[in-house]
Specification:
This protein is α/β, with parallel strands linked by helices. 55% of the residues lie in helices and 8% in strands. It has two domains: 154 residues, 3-Layer(aba) Sandwich (Rossmann fold), CATH 3.40.50; 98 residues. The chain is built from 14 helices and five strands. The protein has a five-stranded parallel beta sheet, with helices on both faces. α5 links the parallel β3 and β4. α8 crosses α9, α10 packs across α12 and α12 runs antiparallel to α13. It is elongated and about 70 Å long. 37% of the residues are buried.
Length: 307
């Protein structure tokens, strides 16, 4: 099975080295924004660890087939219990107990903790105990949007793999392989996504584009004749959703480019260009886990200052 992500050559090299050498860390943390493929990569790694073939994951052995069916006896996934938003300390204690069980089929038992930021502080501390003295037959694979959401003591016990957005042309080639849209439309969707192939595909499917575009259009409308309170009220729902915020910035960028090209007023062009530069700066900060509330407040302040 080929590496499932586009770009990220360093991460691919690190995982290849793990699998070829057989020296798999007892805990691997995969960090990446929504839509970059961290869950896909985590499952690929889990399957490779459980694979019984020579070139892992081979997709053909009993281990791979059991993994895909969700019935591998040495694989456990951890997620919040129904109707809860976090993973509790009791769930992690169950993991610690289960980790002591000898593998039934594979050489290792694998525990996948997707969205590890959902672990409570107490749960992270409970997990830390087994990360400090892990059984030789256990591997933990964790994913998170940002390491800042986890305890430093947990992070220090993991081998961290950081996913990055592929460049536009590489991403466009990938999207072209699964979408029949024209390349310019694909590039526009990728730019609007904030560098996420997954979100770009959703945008092309019209799952999230309209909301981001509508918010960006309303932002420009307020910019032209509203006030900062109206702008902050518009942006407030984005403060708890980094993916939607990235999509909004992408849509706003596209609109500003159009305004700069179409405006006949030199004053307006300079105003839109300054705001465009602010958007570019904020898109970089978004990828470094900047506080969304502060970022959006700064954007509204910059927009009103330019009036």
């Amino acid at each position: 099975m080929r590496f499932p992500l586009v770009g990220n050559d360093r991460v691919r090299g690190a995982i290849d080295n793990m699998l070829i050498s057989g020296k798999i860390p007892h805990a691997v943390l995969i960090e990446g924004e929504e839509g970059l493929g961290k869950t896909t990569l985590a499952r690929y790694l889990c399957k490779a660890i459980l694979c019984e073939g020579e070139e892992r994951p081979c997709e053909n052995c009993a281990g791979c087939r059991l993994f895909e069916s969700g019935n591998h006896p040495d694989m456990e996934s951890v997620e919040p219990i129904k109707d809860r938003k976090t993973v509790s300390v009791d769930q992690v204690r169950d993991i610690v107990t289960s980790a002591a069980i000898v593998p039934q089929k594979a050489a290792k038992r694998v525990f996948l903790i997707d969205n590890a930021e959902l672990l409570t502080v107490q749960a992270q501390n409970a997990l830390l105990k087994i990360l400090e003295e892990p059984p030789e037959t256990v591997v933990f694979v964790l994913t998170c949007r940002s390491r800042a959401m986890l305890l430093q003591t947990v992070i220090s016990r993991c081998s961290v793999l950081i996913l990055a957005s592929p460049d536009e042309q590489t991403a466009a080639d990938c999207i072209c392989s699964v979408s029949k849209r024209d390349r310019e439309e694909i590039l526009s969707a990728y730019r609007s996504s904030g560098g996420s192939i997954g979100l770009a595909l959703n945008i092309l499917k019209k799952k999230s584009a309209s909301a981001a575009e509508d918010t960006a259009k309303e932002f420009i409308s307020i910019l032209k004749g509203g006030n900062q309170y109206e702008m902050l009220k518009l942006l407030f729902p984005l403060e708890k959703d980094r993916v939607k915020t990235a999509a909004f910035y992408g849509a706003l960028e596209v609109i500003l480019v159009s305004l700069i090209k179409d405006s006949s007023s030199a004053t307006l062009v300079r105003r839109y260009e300054r705001l465009y530069n602010t958007v570019q700066e904020h898109k970089v900060l978004l990828k470094s886990n900047a506080n969304l509330s502060l970022l959006l407040t700064a954007l509204s302040a910059a927009a009103m200052t330019e009036r």
